[in-house]
Amino acid sequence: MPFYCYLVECADGSYYAGWTTDPQRRARQHNLGRGARYTRMHGPVRLVYVEEQSDRSEAMRRERAIKKLSHAQKKALAQSFTPSVE
């Protein structure tokens, strides 16, 4: 099972990083108010970055690394992302 690290942009321009097995489903959960408390307060959200990881621990490690980035660095990461067409 693949694991993903993701970044969403909130309505106020802030970013939230997390990990999941299904980024699209998780973004919907955030927008329905069933995600993190942060996104409930700052939503709705838009999925702006997804990165596949080999396992859950790698996804969690990458999430922590992204959370430590500055706002400008998160914005650059989001702008560099090209979604894959499935």
From TrEMBL:
The keyword Hydrolase applies. This is Excinuclease ABC subunit C. CDD domains: GIY-YIG_UPF0213. One of its GO terms (molecular function) is endonuclease activity. Keywords: Endonuclease, Hydrolase, Nuclease. It holds the Pfam family GIY-YIG. InterPro entries: GIY-YIG_endonuc, GIY-YIG_endonuc_sf, UPF0213_domain. SUPFAM superfamilies: GIY-YIG endonuclease. Residues 1-77 form the GIY-YIG domain. Belongs to the UPF0213 family. It comes from the Bacteria.
